[in-house]
Amino acid sequence: MTERAPVPVETQRLRLRQLTEGDVESLHAIYGDAETMRYIGSAGRPTPDVDATRRTLEVLLDHGRQHGFTLWAIDERDGDPLVGVAGLLLVEGRGPEVEAAYLVRRDRWGRGYASEVLRAVLGIAESLGLERVIALAYPGNDASRRVMEKAGMMADGTITAYGREMTRHAWSPPRG
User: What is the CATH number of domain 9-130?
Assistant: First the structure.
């Protein structure tokens, strides 16, 4: 893909923007939190240190350069910068499916940010001409599945990804 995602994007309360190397410390506050990472990736464990988070950030920035989309920083429009990340990634870094992903800092849980930002990410997917986007969750992560459904995604079975079985929700742009 050569088309670039149209970020920054603003929602009622949030702004999606490109991550930068200067975000690594704030990003590690999210990735290094055990409870936040409980249902993320293959292990469900926090990133061990800032250097590991820096390597993850480099992978995300490279993904964006190669594919035109990646995870972006979530800033509060009238508050804190980097309260989460959200965006689009090739599943397992290679696809072919495109995954909508979101991760909100634990002190911002329960505010509806994940649903709000996921709707914005799906809008970006539509603007890029993507015909299908999936989102994945550990089977025990009911909260994440509710976020997907609130954003308009439909349950679509299970898939083995990131070394484990995941539930899958899918979204396609409206036909018309």
Answer: 3.40.630.30
